[in-house]
Amino acid sequence: MSNINIKKLAQELNLSTATVSRALTDNYQISSETKRRVLELAKSLNYEPNPFASNLRNQKSKTIAVIVPEVANHFFSLAINGIEEIARKRDYHVLIYQTHENSETEIAFTLKLLSGRVDGILISTSGETNNKQHLIEASQSIPVVFFDRVYEDIEGVKIITDDYESSYQAVQHLIEAGCKKIAYLLALHNLSTGEKRLNGYLTALKDNGIPFNKNLLVTSTVDSNQNYALIKNLLANNKPDGILSSIEELAFPCYYACRELNLNIPRDIKIISFSNLDCAPLLNPSLTTITQPAFEIGSEAAGILFKIFDKKCFEPNETRVLKSVLIKRESTAV
Amino acid sequence: MSNINIKKLAQELNLSTATVSRALTDNYQISSETKRRVLELAKSLNYEPNPFASNLRNQKSKTIAVIVPEVANHFFSLAINGIEEIARKRDYHVLIYQTHENSETEIAFTLKLLSGRVDGILISTSGETNNKQHLIEASQSIPVVFFDRVYEDIEGVKIITDDYESSYQAVQHLIEAGCKKIAYLLALHNLSTGEKRLNGYLTALKDNGIPFNKNLLVTSTVDSNQNYALIKNLLANNKPDGILSSIEELAFPCYYACRELNLNIPRDIKIISFSNLDCAPLLNPSLTTITQPAFEIGSEAAGILFKIFDKKCFEPNETRVLKSVLIKRESTAV
DNA sequence: ATTAGTGTTGTAATCGTTTGCGTAAATAAA
DNA sequence: TTTATTTACGCAAACGATTACAACACTAAT
Lengths: 334, 334
What we know:
2 copies of one chain form a homodimer. The first copy, chain A, is an alpha/beta fold. Chain A is about 45% helix and about 15% strand. In chain A, α2 packs across α3. Chain A is elongated. The interface between A and B is large, with 52 and 52 residues.
């Protein structure tokens, strides 16, 4: 730690700490000659103001927190990338917290963050439970922006994508490709994000006169082995001819299960997944995806947070919807 | 921000702030009855100590910084995952900084961090330039652990993988698969990481009596379009029958270039890449990789940083080498 | 009765910066 | 000459938590 502080600068220059502090912040009260001397010495000694002292005095941290289920996930790491870039422009610091989809962890994080450690929170919540009291408390206490994984019934600024439309469009695409038994891999069902994706699926089926078959609805878990088993079971026993996966994490298991069961994609079964995998075009076969603008979601969320800081007040319940894009590839070819 | 502090607790309970503070830290001087009262009130009011006040007083931040080139990269996001998990166990906070391979940015970050904002730094440096004075200054000032991308000639604790051996082994594998003109996609050449990978390639060639051909050595840039052009050019003009890519980022461009040029992998050309892509097995064809234990590198680095904090003193120049694994797949099939 | 010891609490300084208020000197206005 | 006004700086009190040093009451030992 740098042990050079304002007091030392002041001593060295025969000035008071007040004057040094003011000189460093280019206060009008200080003569330009004094400013020059202070700045020069500060630079030569590599002086950096102690952030904790400043934060304590100013009651702000120049820090934001990002809470996500996993860092090592294409969507979230892209979003973090977007967030970090915006934060950088404002000279803000970014704290990262992973919940691993664990609600308890998420609760502990959010509540701990209300101590003043951060000026605002960006969160994509774990949908594990319906426990959301902590989110309400948090957003009453400091600015919070929810992104992608949101509860619609919590007041707050939200950045989401057009989940319903994307999902609907995906099913439509499968149907046009000839699918008649379309399975849905359900996730995030406690969140409105998941709910909307499901609704898109259901409505698209109805609009096309296809009755809903509950055997074709697979609810995923946090355990990837179990998910794999569920998917294999679905394929083996219910023989769908199309799959819409509502999260990226279930796409690979589908591919593996098809291999194992000797099902040819897209001949025997067509697959679409919500996904930000940049290898989707290179998969065997290439994967049709609903791709969310992950980076933009992150930068948009961060941008709005800063606007809130700037008091360019936002509607407390504003929701911004970005568009996902359906990219058709071989996995749904006719 | 929570506006409840020790003073308010003290007032409420008719105690001094000193007593409250001691009660909260379970100090032996305080009667159990008083402790009970304090803890009870603190809990009911959701009291969280102001971190800046504590940090200022204690001269430590319970925060570490992670500096990486990119968050949205499989290797780094996995490493961050590992770091975050370890930090969590110690109740430390994790700040993230991306350099985007820009040396200036990296310098600015590291120097700013020496103000006491963090207790230690984990860094995987950008290899863009040979500018490393800031790294030396940083590690003289606070504990720094370098991971994966390191300069061998900087004093400090380093977590790396067996780059030389991995690279050597990869070339050996290509040769055994029948390759005679093996190209090398060079990256990180300013770092000892890159140097070792290159040396593994060169030595393996020599040991197999294959003369080095400088036309088969392609030096990558930070511009992905340019990299793609370089690779296509390599394939078109020099017709290698094998490629070793020293970083993950260049694997996809190889696949795309092969498609474009109608080259069949692995018939016309075999490919190996350093990579943590979890879709490697699902690519078309599946990609042979040298996979680094990214998560472990992160957790190991963080673990050592904490040991340094604990003053279980480390050799100041200790280097820990983890093993990568060569996973043979279709892209190098005979 | 005096001293020593124990158990519990309070006073006040400290961490490094920031900032309201005061002040001295210099200049301008009366 | 006296009275404003401006310019440039210092004093000292915050911010909230921690902790050395007292201090008090009370018991035990002498």
